[in-house]
Amino acid sequence: MNTRTVHTVHPSPLGDLLLTGSVSPAGHTLTSLSLPGRRGAPAPRPEDRDDRPFAEAHRQLDAYFTGRPTRFDLPLATTGSPFQRAVWQALEEIPYGTTTTYGELAARLGVPRSEIRAVGGALGANPLLLVRPCHRVIGSDGSMRGYAGGVEHKVWLLTHEGALQPTLI
């Protein structure tokens, strides 16, 4: 089957988001949503930019950033271990505007407390920021633990969703 990798950029309050995907005669799938230059972000070739297959992703991202609670509904195609895929699936069940802890997520997955770091590792490998809302997972003490998009962006996203109160300077 003739498949090609394409990408686009979506302007957002966080900065430009890089979306990559695969296009084939069967359709388009989203393979990555990241902040360019961040850990795990792909380095696409300029000649592979094609905005057309991402029209629905752009629409859903615009809705999210204008404050409408959004559950992303896009065709996805990512690779990961069975454990990573189980963690990523659990992320999709965390409602907009709420948070959970690494420990609660591990318990939901049946992962022993001694292996919580593995859950954190799977979250760090999530190639679909926002779509799979790993930003909604926080420390048990309410602290903002690592986020591939940067902790400052995690705080912004949680504030945007209403899970955190804005801070006054």
What fraction, in percent, of the residue positions are helical?
25-40%
Structural class: alpha+beta
Number of helices: 5
- As laid out across the biggest beta sheet, the strand order is 1-2-3
Describe how the helices and strands are arranged.
Blueprint: E1 4-10, E2 17-24, E3 27-34, H1 55-65, H2 82-91, E4 100-101, H3 102-109, H4 116-124, E5 137-138, H5 151-160
Parallel strand pairs: 4-5
Antiparallel strand pairs: 1-2, 2-3
Helix pairs in contact: 2-3, 2-4
What does the model show?
The structure is a single chain. The chain is of the alpha+beta class and 169 residues long. It has helices at 55-65, 82-91, 102-109, 116-124, 151-160; strands at 4-10, 17-24, 27-34, 100-101, 137-138. A 3-stranded antiparallel beta sheet has the order 1-2-3. The chain has a two-stranded parallel sheet with strand order 4-5. Strand 2 (17-24) and strand 3 (27-34) form a beta hairpin. Helix 2 (82-91) packs across helix 3 (102-109) and helix 2 (82-91) crosses helix 4. The longest helix is centred in the middle third of the chain and has 11 residues, at 55-65. The mean pLDDT is 90.
